[in-house]
Amino acid sequence: MSQPTSSRGGSNGEARDTDWDGVRLHIVSGKGGTGKTTVAAALALALAAGGRKVLLVEVEGRQGIAQAFDLPPLPYEERKIAVAPGGGDVYALAVDPEEAMLDYLEMFYGIKRVGKALTRMGVVDFATTIAPGLRDVLVTGKTSEAVRRRDKLGRRVYDAIVMDAPPTGRIARFLNVTQEVAGLARVGPIKNHADLVRGVLASPETAVHFVTLLEEMPVQETLDGIEELRTTGLPVGGVFVNMVRPAGLPEGVLEAASRGRFDSAELALGLKAAGLTDVTADSSAVAEALAREVTEHALRTELEKRERVALEEAGVPRYDLPLLPDGADLAGLYELADALRAQSVA
Question: For the ArsA/GET3 Anion-transporting ATPase-like domain, which residue ranges apply (predicted)?
């Protein structure tokens, strides 16, 4: 876990040491099954705590945010979905590429009505099919616009934006596609738009975080993703190690079990002495079954230690999030948000 680097105040005057002072766009990626959307939702709650206003953006059309907060499917509009600890607000936006295209036409050409007609004709789908990168530019562009947006008094509309981004395997291409589109369009509004988006994504105001489990494949994908982002010049954030299980047993017991030196006969005597086995039960059989469980747990713990060492080599901040015994329900999101704040993430 990283050490706090600075402090900042919330809109209610609360000051906290945080690791990501100055970062306004938090992009959350991760291999499928690691809990990427859950972590993004918890991060939004953590960042909003203490009176801040945070926008949580979904870009893949899965309605994962709605499921995480136990809400009906979200429309293409920014709406308040949760109150964070201390009175902060979390808003959500499920980006729809077609609607984002209409916004783009209105913003740069003032022809939203024409755009709607083009949508009915299928031209928008045609355009994003022959130029797939354009779809990603529209999605990231909507998020970047929210980062830059100010109210009539010149104040930032949102204190932070959290994007529930595509999986690790395609995050670098998803974020770097603006440069490809800018290369295709040498001049004009499309190039200007792509350049604006790239300016936000590559700036110190942005951090791309990864969610992983302490398993070989997710960790390797995380390391590959970090390296790919560094190669393309995009800002690497931290690593969220999700679903961390407590050790549960003393280090000496785990070490003995992992090396096949766990004494099940001694365990049987201990069970009997503690009155944990019925007089009619075969304490040896119970002890052997427990010993197998202990050995499996010890071997998993050893594997997790190796994966932690591998993550350390990436040289980025790491944060542990506990395995939620009751699953990632709404109460669990708040528990994870508290864990993030306790580790100075927000």
Answer: 25-181
C-alpha distances in angstroms, 202 versus 5, 19, 305?
A: 21, 18, 33
Tell me what the pLDDT averaged over the chain comes to: 81
Homologous superfamily, domain 6-12+22-245+323-342:
P-loop containing nucleotide triphosphate hydrolases (3.40.50.300)
Q: What is the pLDDT of residues 76-129, one digit of tens each?
A: 899 999 999 889 999 999 988 677 767 766 665 555 454 455 555 454 554 555
Instruction: Assign 1 a pLDDT band (cuts: 50, 70, 90).
Output: very low
Q: How far apart are CA 67 and CA 328, in angstroms?
A: 10
Q: Please give the structure tokens belonging to residue 279.
A: 């007089």
What are the boundaries of each domain within the chain?
A: 6-12+22-245+323-342, 248-316
Contact between 31 and 218 under an 8 Å Cβ cutoff? The reply is yes
Q: Which of 344, 329, 341, 342 is nearest to 49 (CA)?
A: 341
- Please report the DSSP string for 61-114 in residue order: SS-HHHHHTT-PPP-SS-EEEEE-TTS-EEEEEE--HHHHHHHHHHHHHS-HHH
Residue written as token pair 């949102």? 158
- Reported pTM: 0.81
List helix spans (H) across the chain.
36-48, 64-68, 97-109, 112-121, 123-130, 132-148, 171-184, 189-201, 216-232, 251-258, 264-273, 283-312, 330-342
Angstrom distance (rounded) from CA 95 to CA 159? 19
Strand partners, 79: 92
pLDDT interval class at 294 (50, 70, 90): confident
- Rounded distance between C-alpha atoms, residue 205 and residue 35, angstroms: 24
d(CA 296, CA 90): 41
Residue whose entry in the numeric block shows the structure tokens 């005597």:
269
